[in-house]
Amino acid sequence: MKDLIPTERIEQAIFLVRGQKVILDGDLSRLYGVTTKRLNEQVKRNRKRFPDDFMFQLNLQEVARLRSRFATLNGGRGRHRKYLPYVFTEHGAIMAANVLNSDRAIEASVCVVRAFVRLRELIASHKDLSKRLDELERKYDSQFKEVFDAILELMTPPTPPKPRIGFRA
Fold first, then answer.
1. C-alpha angle with apex 78: 74 to 79, nearest 5 degrees?
2. What span, in angstroms and rounded, lies between the C-alpha atoms of 102 and 31?
3. 59: Cβ–Cβ under 8 A, 6 or more apart, which residues?
4. 36 vs 7 pLDDT, higher one
5. What is the CB-side half-sphere exposure of residue 1 using CA atoms within 13 A?
6. What is the CA 102 to chain-centroid distance, rounded?
7. Which spans in the chain are helix H?
8. How far apart are CA 158 and CA 144, in angstroms?
């Protein structure tokens, strides 16, 4: 089955905030084919389905940091948000599709989940690579210690002989 939305596009909308991978309510609403206002209305009506580990509201500093990642704001009256945006974790994005109850939201939620899973796999592979590099470094450090010591000894200049004190005949 071909994805409704390319996974790469969704991955670009996922950010790391407070140590969690999240997607902004505006990005999620565009993916699900509804307005941000409608998405947030449904979330408020079903607040029990969205605990803090599924969804949370950003603070001013987090919004400023995210805003700096984007080029510029669009101009014009009514184009800026009055309220701080909400962000959804992977589980929150699935729950949002359930409360919206539209075919597009359900199809798009599958794509969103795939993007989160792919990012999780990438992070796991980076951790594995880092672990292997550390092991190799420890292994070769002990084997080549004598070589490194010899090189350091050759690199240090010899100490000049001290002049003799006293009269010379």
1. 25
2. 12
3. 84
4. 36
5. 8
6. 29
7. 7-12, 25-32, 36-45, 60-69, 90-100, 103-143, 145-155
8. 24
The two three-digit tokens of residue 25, written as one number: 């309510």
Per-residue model confidence (pLDDT) at position 165: 81
Q: What are the residue boundaries of the structural domains of the chain, listed by start?
A: 7-71+82-122
- Would you say how long the chain is, in residues? 169
| Least confident among 31-40, 56-65, 103-112 | 103-112
Mean pLDDT of 72-79: 53
CA 18 to chain centre: 10
pLDDT digits (tens, 9 = 90+) for 28-59: 888 888 898 999 999 999 999 899 999 999 98
